[in-house]
Design brief:
By secondary structure, this protein is of the alpha/beta class. It is 40% helix and 13% strand.
Amino acid sequence: MEKIAVLGLGYVGLPVALSFARRFPGTVGFDVKRSRIEELRDGHDVTGEVSAEELRSTPITITDDPAALQGCTFFVVAVPTPVDQSRQPDLTALSRASETVGRAVRPGAIVVYESTVYPGVTEDVCGPIIERVSGLRCGVDFKLGYSPERINPGDREHTLERIVKVVSGQDEEALERVADCYAAIVTAGVHKASSIKVAEAAKVIENTQRDLNIALMNELALIFDRLNLRTRDVIAAASTKWNFLRFSPGLVGGHCIGVDPYYLTAKAEQIGYHPQVILAGRRINDGMGAFIAGKLAKLLIHGSLPVREARVGILGFTFKENVPDLRNSKVADILTELSEFGISPLVHDPLALPEEAHEEFGISLSPLSEFKQLEAVVIAVSHDAYRGLGAEAIRSMVRPGGVVIDVKSMFDAGDFPGLSYWSL
């Protein structure tokens, strides 16, 4: 019987830790953030991925004390792997987690990484760190594995247990141990990759493929806007063909789709290949916030409304609908571009944590009661809360002749009589 330790209790690590704890007694959930540990012990998960009942009923040790990792035989590392300002992989958290494992690992242990990386990181970066700190030999005294996370924040259908888990190991023995552990918690089954590098590559291309599909839709939206066509109508018509892939245009943020392609392109450039298609897609998606802000300014001018210091309201600030996650929110790009026009919008989000919005972006969230007599409103995130609010309530926020920008086409032009309506 393995004793499991999961390092990193965020959107990915917490569900993994709880699933292991239900099958493996003595499971430890570790995170370096003290405030995170305290809220979880109080039965509250700010990510919204786990209920208070699950937290209270699952027998797990939740701690920020590295000493609790002593005696564990199976380590799972699920920490963030962002990019820096130059869009290069930032392995700081991964390296620190590896050092923490190195201080606790004992002969015979397995260390499995779930964090998204480019092919080679697990064996070429993480393994040597554990060796250096522990004094043990990688592949002999301890072994490595990789099992890419596939959790989709806010998705109650495609949960950890219901998604086939890709597993890999440093050798056949390690592979079987990793497969056995995950098979115990994933009812959908496991897929044994032929190597750790194959598993790392499989993960990074999953989000790269999705990123490129959305980039195509975004580029088509830019073209259709010039042709005065609504992209949603075009997609609806094209979707009547059986093999049309229905993706929608929009803002591509978050910790996965907007980040992972840069891990692959960074590795490609290291080996002398300059990616073209992947980076072209990234440029298109990264530019959509500025495009939406520019479109808003043009519509204000066309409607003879003031641009500088215009009263604009932004509905939604998280990176996707119905989650509180603000990581890499591209709504921030809209705000940055609007500031170039002298506009400081009001921003509302029913799920985002106000303190996090202020800490990460310098944004103070506003209540809906302040959304009055606006020159324009931007429905930036398609939260169910805004759908429930209804077009009439949103229309009442905008002065006659004002502008409504509906990024995800939640509504129709006919829902906003007397206003200039535009959707991506």
